[in-house]
Amino acid sequence: MKKLLVIGLVVGLLSAPAFAVQKKASVTTNPFSLMFGIMGLEGNFAVGDSVSIPASLSYFSYEDTTDLVGFYEETGTISIIGLGTGLRYYWQGNAINGWYLGGIINMNILSLDYEKKYYGGAEYTGSASASVIGMGFLIGYQAIWESGFTLDAGLGMTKYTLPDFDVEAEASGGATKDETFEGVSLTLPSIKLALGYAF
Asked: H helices of 16-162, where?
């Protein structure tokens, strides 16, 4: 009996839009990202019965300072601005509510600043910036309640590409050094879990 109930629940989710609620836009955020200091919002906008366009913006900044008393003090700051969009297809014909297959494209703009000061007077600074491009897919489910509360969850894969980038360094005496690092590409799993409001 329990197995029949579980099968019936799964079939119901696959074949019927969640709660039959008609909404055409939503704004969500990832609560777990907020716990790690990553601020982000995503809007999802229906452009037809079966298609929606998501758009996201995120920001992260972290600073670390090491003070070795009597020797030196060094500070490093990294910041990341993320922009994303894509296309979602809701095969139940009830965008933005129900199961979907989505394409993902995003760009993360990274910047790094570094400063090291020796108590004897020498000082070194450095900076670097790069843009990481991500492209992939996501299979997910967006549920919307009558109140407007929405849950958006999914799994997928994304390939990230970091092109060659330059690192600039300068010493207090005026000497400079520029170095180019080779870019890399890697594919990682994508996990989506977001809460928000639909309207």
From this structure: 31-35
Distance CA 65, CA 83 (A): 28
Tokens 């079939």 correspond to 11
The structure tokens listed for 122 are 């020498």
Examine the pLDDT at 65 and tell me if it is beyond 80.
yes
How many Cα atoms occupy the beta-carbon half-sphere of 33 within 13 Å?
A: 19
Residue found by looking up tokens 């609620």 in the block: 21
Pairing relationship of beta strands 39-46 and 51-68 according to DSSP bridges: antiparallel
- Domain range summary for the chain, segments of one domain joined by +: 2-198
- Residue (of 171, 39, 178, 154) closest to 104 by Cα position: 154
- Buried b / exposed e over 120-153, threshold 16 CB at 10 Å, is eeeebbbebebebebebebebbbbbeeeeebebe
**What does pTM read for this prediction?**
0.79
In the prediction, which pLDDT does 5 show? 45
Place of tokens 């995503």: 42
- 2-198 CATH pick, 2.70.98, 3.30.460, 1.20.140, 2.40.160: 2.40.160
Check: CB of residue 152 under 8 Å from CB of residue 194. yes
